[in-house]
Amino acid sequence: MDNIDFVVTWVDGNDKEWLKSKAQYQPENKNINSEIRYRDFGTFKYWFRSVEKYAPWVNKIYLVTEGHVPDWLDINSDKLVIVKHSDYMPKSYLPTFSSNPIELNLHRIPELSEHFVVFNDDLFLMNNVSEDDFFHNGLPREVGIYSPVVPYKEFSNTVFNNVRIINEHFNKNSDLKKNWKKFISAKYGKEQLRTLATLPWGKITGYRNLHLTRSHLKSTFKKVWDEEYDILNQTSKNRFRTLSDVNQWLFSYWQIETGQFYPQSVRLGKYYTLTDTDKIIEFIKESKQKELCINDDYNITNYENKMNRITESLQEKFPQKSHFEK
Fold first, then answer.
1. Whole-prediction pTM value?
2. Residue 240 CB partners (closer than 8 Å, separation 6+)
3. How many domains is the chain built from?
4. Residue 199, pLDDT above cutoff 60
């Protein structure tokens, strides 16, 4: 197995220069670009502690940032590579205040391995993980489950845009027949019933998304850019999120339809929003699964109290400094 790199994106929402630049481009409609997308929990150091404890085998960690870095971070760590947006993104895409262009262009990072895993700074490892949790026989782990896209919030548009493009390139029935052993798997448990429920529809209705890590092949990024340059280029030019965007999930869907994947367990981890504070703390203490995503949310009440409780729980879980800290 080749080297596996981790890529994690981070933004310092309190950086004065960054805020000044953001204000120059900020669109009038802020709904889809709420301030919560830039709010820093102050828990990023626990991400590094979790990786050092549970994935010591990782080759390199690429920290992708506008240019700022946490003041506690030891930038001289041998496994750490600091990557500025300007280091790998075309000038025409900068500055950007959307995660979509940042993630769609990750394949351009110099020396990034063919096999890499994408994290957000709110996604922590909670238990030992192996290379096989992310890649098997050189192919990424994916959840090959069809499930309808349910219109809910603005983000639903992005998912819908991804699926529309996939339907332009692939035939659901033939892909199912060709790789049925990857669509029917014990790793999916009862959730594979979702796929069975979509069989009456000839087109792909959507996919089951875990909101956890994403394992990618750099070659898939290059292939999709060759096939769908216009939409990827346009999304990359959008300095803020728009309803016409696609995101990195498009590459995952492409890997599924081409059969370039192996089934991923639907019990890899859990996704919670800050409103589920008690469940988050319980999950951290029990640590039965391997990943935990703690997502910010709109209209959070008692934000500081909730974050203090979660931070205390993370400190109990990861009391020792990592070698990534000064």
1. 0.94
2. 25, 26, 27, 32, 33, 97, 98
3. 1
4. yes
